[in-house]
Amino acid sequence: MIRFAAIRLVEIIAMLALMSFVIYALIGLMPGDPIDLMRSADPRMSAADAARLKALYGLDQPLLLRYAGWARQALAGDLGYSRLFAAPVWGALLPRLGNSLLLMVPSFVLAFTIALGLGTLAARHPRSRLDGAVNLFCFAGISMPTFWLALILILVFAAGFGWLPASGIATAGSSDIADRLRHLVMPVTTLTLVSAASYTRYVRSAMREALAQDHIRTARAKGASEARVVVHHALRSALVPVTTILALSFGGLVSGALVTETMFAYPGMGKLIFDAVMGNDYNLALAALLLATVVTMVANLVADLAYAWLDPRVSYR
Amino acid sequence: MKLPLILLVVIAAASFAAPLVNAILGIDPNVVDLLDRLSGPSLAHPLGTDELGRDVLLRLLAGGRVSLVIGVAAALAAAALGTLIGLTAGYLGGWTDRVLMRGTDAMIALPLLPLLIVLAALDLNKLGLPARLIQSDEISVVRIVALAVLVGWTTAARLVRGAALVTRNRDFVRAARSLGAGVPHILWLHILPNVLAPLIVATTLSVGDVILFESVLSFLGLGVQPPLSSWGSMLSNAQELITAAPLLAVYPGLMIFLTVVACNLLGDALQRRLDPVTARTR
């Protein structure tokens, strides 16, 4: 187990190094070049000035050399300076990551709770009317464009009734907790509904499989109550595949809330990545994308470890 | 099975017959009429007009054509590429298999949406593509299809590889091999037919996924570019007028939703029909 985790960690680091190079090269292929931007902002700059600046910043060097320079600094903990935020990259990144978690954790917990409840109910009564309704909810949820759901929520609750704020993280100048919570309601609802739908499908099919096992019949035969059969015997084995999928999806959530964050103008990681890419803020975009990659890969590792931990039959050796 | 199929056929037929409808009604969906902006439903414009006085219904149909073409083209291309990779990995096995499948695993372990945004924002001039292609109106469509294929091939590759691994040691394949059949012949005639059912199901489901994916990119301004428009780009425009004309945002979203639901339901029904073993516990 420890050996397995160690090998995976090495793999993650190798993958990160590879990704950092790929992203570095890709960012160089995006439109706009910092020196060209300066030139367009200042008509007095001549071509000679531009060439001199390019040499000064090392932009005339080959890609590999430039990457090596960036990597050396990054390994020393210096990710550079964000033009968009006019602050060091770390300073721009960390508060956004915090905001993202504030959005992600409640929606994740809510979605999981809903999925556990609905999925178990549907699995216990397959082909019933209830199962049909749950199925309908799942299909609607996975087919719903996230931004459209967000738009409808804004239309109804912000523009229509005026109950909730349509965007942002807090009313300007207010440090009221209730105000921050009110700003969280709609983004959290959007994320919850969308992810609950796909989680429910996984829970339902895992529970269906678990309830069909022989040991469930044994448990019933020896007189265990229905609640005990479902919670203690079926849920335990159903949770194994479900946990894996949840851990996998949590990694995706950190960057995957991009659409929701953009819709509600919520300053989280997803919106940060989008703004950095669109605003030609290379240092920030690179660091944010790498951070998202780290989170996703660590979540995958956790998924694998949780699998072995929950299911004693699985061993990584 | 019937209902989603009918829904899809109706949406597709209406979208592809849109030029015909234009000709019959004598309305051009691209004609701007600034005196008739944001009007409500009327006989001339059943769903009203948008912020430039264009007919919303006709624009929905025209946008549907773009969205559907992208969805089907990308799903088919991704299935083809995935099949090729999966067959190679599964049949040859060994070292080839390990490299290809590690690649597939790595794709799944990446935060795809942010990376796709970077890819969608790339400057095609710096990639050295021919200028005629870059300047054509359809370049944004080609780009989205390429991106969707890039992320979409893994599903088909895994499915096909798994089936190829199982099938390649079956007796009829050994028999074909001992009779001197070449590798392409075996792959095409003996292995591929055995994965066709799950492959069709996966491709149907991925049409819906691609349409969602296209709408997200278009919504972020990185997808279909004018003069073409898709449901996603219509939604993106409508978002700015959300308080003045909320219905403009409701229609294209509803179309995306209905089409994707239909694809998912159809895929589910196909699975039950074609692949009863996997579908049994569902």
Describe this structure in words.
The complex is a heterodimer of chains A (317) and B (282). The mean pLDDT of chain A is 82. In chain A, helix 1 runs antiparallel to helix 13 and helix 12 runs antiparallel to helix 13. Chain A has 2 domains: 2-89, no CATH class; 94-310, MetI-like fold (Orthogonal Bundle). Chain A has helices at residues 2-28, 34-41, 47-56, 63-75, 89-124, 129-143, 146-160, 177-211, 214-221, 226-256, 258-263, 269-278, 282-310, and strands at residues 81-82, 87-88. In chain A, strands 1-2 form a two-stranded antiparallel ribbon. By secondary structure, chain A is mainly alpha-helical. Chain A is globular. In chain A, strand 1 (81-82) and strand 2 form a beta hairpin. Chain A has 13 helices and 2 strands; from the N terminus they run H-H-H-H-E-E-H-H-H-H-H-H-H-H-H. Chain B has 282 residues and is mostly helical. Chain B has one domain (2-29, 40-281): MetI-like fold. The radius of gyration of chain B is 22 Å and the shape is elongated. Chains A and B meet through helix 1, helix 6, helix 7, helix 8 and helix 10 of A and helix 5, helix 9, helix 10 and helix 11 of B.
